[in-house]
Design a protein that fits this description.
It is a single chain. The chain has helices spanning 8-18, 22-38, 43-53, 55-60, 68-73, 110-117, 124-137, 151-158, 166-173, 181-188, 196-201, 204-243, 260-268, 288-298, 302-316, 326-342, 344-352, 362-367, 375-388, 393-403, 405-410, 414-418, 426-437, 442-450. The protein is an all-alpha fold. It comes from Aspergillus mulundensis.
């Protein structure tokens, strides 16, 4: 019986078996690794083949990317350390175009291009209208964590906030603890405590610094207003003593030709007080820490976050930090009224269970829905609110209730459901809010605009 001669592979294995050593074992692993790599088509060769078979039109089109996160995850299929240099495929694919702007695409979006290039022919109002429309029609480009390289500049433009010198912010920090420091420290460690994205990017120390600086800023403004009020009151008293002879009939000032507003300012002595900051304004209220969180998360520096947050609370919603937060309570009342107009059946059912907005919507009104995760969706919702007005947050809360309508009507205990709103879907909420706006009467919409002032 004739025997077949041994193959080359069998001879190699026999030789390795006779003299086992670390060097020969490494050689065996190299042979096996090389055979494994050779048995599969190279990744880049397959890409080149697909593009070549697509014809001239396919070559002219850039490679289609699913998302920036997937691009980072699958950038390299395997390490080349276990393959020899002669077996590694050559990169014959066309070099991608230079990424500009946010880096999340090969071409800048219209929104980013408008922010970078500025208004055409110096028409600022027209450019702002176009900017708002682009925010509504196209989302701000961001990665999976909600980070965008130009969102903070969009917010600064929409809120009309000029550049702030860094030295101004540092001077507030170097003053040390503000009168509200103890309250701030009692809240900061709880700020979005269950959100890993926020905890990874924003430290408690930065929250404390920013809130403490804002407290100093408001404290100084209140003291300045009090000094102006006292000086103007003394000046009026001196003028009355000098220009008006003593007379029983004129002990009380005349009100002829005075409007109610001027009478109120004259009697209270606050005519010189800057709009937004009054003597009743609190330097810090509970909840400001959560309202501050998205600004710190989206900004590229604490100075930008400070400028955004301070201007927002003192100009856009000063009623939220004044007195007993009367602006927030007016907003809660408006949630009930708007829900009753837009969705009367749901409103009647909630009212029958004793569920007014003040029992479940207080955090959402105070923080502009920043208390409801996920944080990337909060940022997209804020893009819309800053473009068309923070007062629309009231209607966004109504929209969330309408999205929960079927679940609430079927539940015998809707209070349990309303304790925590479902995760935000900014696109769906914004689309529904745009429809709700059309159903709100003009007088009620005017109250929406003014409720936070």
């Amino acid at each position: 019986m004739s025997s077949q001669p041994p193959t080359e592979a069998q001879l190699n294995l026999a030789a390795l078996a006779e003299s086992p050593s670390p060097r020969t074992m490494r050689g065996l692993r190299k042979i096996q690794s090389h055979q494994h790599l050779s048995s599969r088509p190279p990744l880049f060769s397959q890409v080149s083949f697909d593009r070549a078979s697509a014809g001239p039109e396919g070559l002219s089109k850039p490679a289609k990317l699913d998302s920036p996160v997937r691009l980072r995850t699958h950038r390299r299929a395997r390490s080349n350390s276990d393959a020899s240099s002669r077996d590694s495929p050559k990169l014959t694919a066309r070099r991608p175009g230079r990424k500009t702007g946010s880096g999340f695409g090969l071409k800048r979006s219209l929104l980013e291009a408008l922010l970078r290039d500025g208004p055409q022919q110096g028409n600022v109002q027209e450019a702002l209208q176009e900017l708002r429309y682009l925010v509504l029609s196209t989302r701000v480009e961001a990665d999976g964590d909600g980070m965008s390289t130009y969102r903070v500049y969009l917010w600064l433009i929409l809120l009309d906030i000029p550049p702030l010198p860094t030295d101004h912010y540092l001077s507030l920090i170097h003053r040390g603890r503000s009168p509200a420091y103890a309250k701030i420290r009692n809240d900061t460690f709880r700020t979005l405590a269950t959100d890993p994205l926020f905890k990874r990017r924003v430290t408690e120390a930065s929250l404390i610094r920013l809130l403490n600086a804002v407290a100093w800023k408001i404290h100084d403004a209140k003291n300045k207003n009090k000094a102006k009020s006292r000086s103007s009151s003394r000046r009026r008293e001196m003028e009355l003593l000098i220009n008006t002879p003593p007379s029983i009939a004129e002990e009380e000032p005349s009100t002829d030709g005075m409007t109610p507003d001027s009478m109120a300012s004259s009697n209270s002595g606050t005519s010189a007080i800057k709009p937004g900051i009054t003597n009743e304004t609190a330097v810090y209220v509970q909840g400001m820490n959560v309202l501050c969180a998205p600004f710190l998360y989206a900004a590229r520096s604490e100075v930008e976050a400070f400028a955004l947050f301070h201007s927002f609370v003192t100009r856009e919603c000063p009623g939220y930090i004044r007195g007993a937060m009367d602006g927030v309570h007016r907003g809660l009342n408006l949630v009930d009224r708007c829900l009753e107009i837009v969705e009367p059946k749901l409103a009647a059912y909630l009212f029958s269970k004793g569920l007014q907005a003040k029992l479940y919507a207080f955090p959402s009104v105070l923080t502009l829905c920043a208390c409801t995760p996920p944080l990337p969706e909060v940022l997209h919702l804020w893009d819309f609110l800053f473009a068309y007005g923070p007062h629309l947050n009231i209607l966004c809360i109504v929209a969330q209730l309408i999205l929960m309508r079927d679940t609430l009507l079927k539940s015998s205990n809707p209070n349990k459901i309303l304790r925590s709103f479902p995760p935000l879907d900014a696109k769906e909420i914004i689309a529904l809010t745009v429809l709700i706006v059309r159903k709100i009467p003009e007088p009620l919409y005017a109250e929406l605009i003014d409720h936070a002032k």
